[in-house]
DNA sequence: ATTGATCTCCAAAACGTTTTGGTTGACTCT
DNA sequence: AGAGTCAACCAAAACGTTTTGGAGATCAAT
């Protein structure tokens, strides 16, 4: 409740000494230090955050911009990631603030508001686009940041990402090895890096196998988007026998399309993200996931290292993608 | 980039005048005001947030505590709500910070850290418990706050909540009217208010109909919890013919249990929350939802009014619950 | 007894704003 | 001419920390 001045007065000490005692400096005697600390807890003293921030010229805050378009912020377990990240940042004295992007305002403006108002020490970027104006701005400002997902920026920046290209290529090759020849792709919006690179992985595998890359439909990265895209592919004269979907949510939408058109799922399908929900769909959804423990913690740790000044090149983590085999990918290739 | 002092110097004015010009006070001439504002945008001036906060004794921040237990934070679309809330708070100059609760730390401690360190002006509480220590603490501190979900606190506090009792009672009565007699309930953890009140709604309806209330199983508010709880009910000698589930996620888990035990869903089922995913399950999940537009905005608006000093009694919103009928509730009562 | 270390402690400045309580000069009214 | 009003500006204080640059003891060594 009290402030430093009151605490110092009640102890008969100077503000300086109390402050330094609490911070553990060696130029205050052990006895005094103990006495001060005891009084501090007794009084329930907590330093005023604004005052410290002003003096230390650090905001002790990190912002993450969230596009307000529902579904465009990220997969459903995304909040768990943010929460884990915030937890690790908090251990370093940083709090995570949400920077929503209202409709009609650019993400860039939001970044500027936070950075130029010195409201934050660093930023977290999610759902990166191939050409991401936020990245360019933050690089020009020299503000530390980490992105979840890569970009096509020429200047390297810290990121953490899954190797979507390799994952989708492998998934496609696996379908090919299982005998599938008409392998479709349900793609996410191509301005997003993750969606683009996943499509490229599928495409590369198709070309390696000498197959046509015409079975591709794009939609919003949500159930509805996957549903509509799948319907589109199922209208083709030569239907796919297998579907590689950019996200689990899209795959779940596609599953419904298959049920409606097919009367049951005769088509193999695989998604990406390993949503918990996937284990409970019908059939249980086979999927992929980025390897590595606790994405949020890694994200936080990269950011702390970026703040500490480590060069961007040392702060780029590209994680392999692993299969989570359940049942939806096991349909025979001749079914459709 | 610059600060007030530099800006004032470059204009040949005092800091006071520049500050007041920017804030639109009437004691600076229109001409000067225009000149100052022009110079400010030219210099890209933004007031230093820490300095203003210190001086104004307001943190300009609001925190929302997030239990780090995955699945215990809230339904998947929860982040959308937070994002919408943050957006409306931002319009009032408040930013939303995430206060994760690390394992082994109580939510109370987190509240204290934020409140006593004057890091926030107000708090948002989600997933309230029947006896919620956070509520008691904040009330004792006199800090404005709003909860998403009611509590059993004796002192009234601002909240926004759906009428789970009425909703679950109505759902159960509807099953009864459709001829069901063995209506089970898949309950969430009873320390949560929402889970408790939903069970009571089911129970009240059962008693009104003169039915036994033995078909009730409790689990974590996730797919897996619903799955396990449903299996438990299906092991009973006298199986339920209809299932009222505390959340959509639990209902989706229960759907899988029905598929496994039943070989298909012969049992009616209804959930709560209206997850987008529910439209894509097999069968499409019938559910309930709190009425009202844009929960996040309402949440924010209640908080702003609480900060403005409106009494708690005027800030309690209990919204009716409406059915979202898809298909899963239409199974005939004799099926099991 | 002086010098130099060493140990404790502290006054004051600084961080960048907002706000208080003025001052100055021009103008109006009697 | 003097009193009063008003418009336009500003110096200084305040918010609560952290940090700089000492100051005053105490003690050991000369």
Automatic annotation (TrEMBL), chains A, B:
Record keywords: DNA-binding, Transcription, Transcription regulation
Its domain of life?
Bacteria
- Show the InterPro entries listed in the entry: HTH_LacI, LacI/GalR-like_sensor, Lambda_DNA-bd_dom_sf, Peripla_BP_I
**In this protein, which residues make up the domain named HTH lacI-type?**
2-56
Molecular function GO terms recorded: DNA-binding transcription factor activity; transcription cis-regulatory region binding
SUPFAM superfamilies assigned to the protein according to its UniProt record, in alphabetical order: lambda repressor-like DNA-binding domains, Periplasmic binding protein-like I
Pfam families per the record? LacI, Peripla_BP_3
Q: Which PANTHER family match?
A: LACI-RELATED TRANSCRIPTIONAL REPRESSOR, LACTOSE OPERON REPRESSOR
Name the chain's protein: HTH-type transcriptional regulator RafR
Origin species: Neorhizobium galegae bv. officinalis
Lineage of the organism: Bacteria, Pseudomonadati, Pseudomonadota, Alphaproteobacteria, Hyphomicrobiales
As recorded in Swiss-Prot or TrEMBL, the protein's gene is named: rafR
């Amino acid at each position: 409740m009290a402030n430093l001045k009151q605490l110092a007065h009640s102890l008969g000490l100077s503000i300086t000494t109390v402050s330094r005692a609490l911070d553990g400096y060696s130029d205050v005697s052990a006895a005094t230090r103990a006495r001060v600390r005891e009084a501090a807890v007794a009084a329930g003293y907590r330093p005023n955050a604004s005052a410290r921030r002003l003096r230390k010229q650090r905001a002790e805050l990190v912002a993450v911009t969230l596009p307000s378009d529902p579904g465009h912020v990220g997969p459903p377990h995304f909040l768990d990631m943010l929460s884990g990240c915030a937890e690790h940042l908090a251990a370093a004295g940083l709090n995570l603030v949400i920077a929503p992007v209202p409709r009609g305002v650019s993400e860039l403006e939001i970044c500027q508001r936070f950075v130029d108002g010195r409201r934050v020490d660093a930023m977290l970027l999610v759902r990166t686009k191939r050409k991401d104006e936020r990245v360019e701005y933050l690089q020009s400002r020299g503000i530390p940041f980490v992105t979840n997902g890569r970009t096509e920026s020429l200047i390297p920046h810290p990121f953490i990402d899954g190797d979507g290209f390799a994952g989708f290529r492998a998934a496609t090759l696996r379908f090919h090895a299982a005998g599938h020849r008409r392998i479709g792709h349900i793609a996410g919006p191509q301005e997003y890096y993750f969606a683009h690179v996943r499509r490229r992985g599928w495409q590369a595998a198709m070309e390696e196998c000498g197959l046509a890359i015409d079975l591709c439909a794009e939609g919003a990265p949500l159930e509805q988007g996957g549903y509509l895209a799948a319907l589109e592919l199922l209208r083709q004269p030569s239907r796919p026998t297998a579907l590689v979907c950019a996200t689990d949510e899209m795959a779940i939408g596609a599953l419904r399309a298959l049920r409606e058109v097919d009367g049951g799922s005769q088509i193999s399908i695989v998604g990406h993200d390993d949503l918990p929900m996937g284990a409970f769909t019908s059939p249980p959804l086979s999927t992929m996931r980025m390897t590595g423990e606790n994405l949020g913690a890694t994200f936080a740790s990269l950011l702390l290292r970026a703040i500490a000044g480590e060069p961007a090149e040392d702060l780029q983590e590209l994680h392999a993608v692993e299969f989570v085999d359940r049942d939806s990918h096991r349909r025979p290739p001749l079914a459709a």
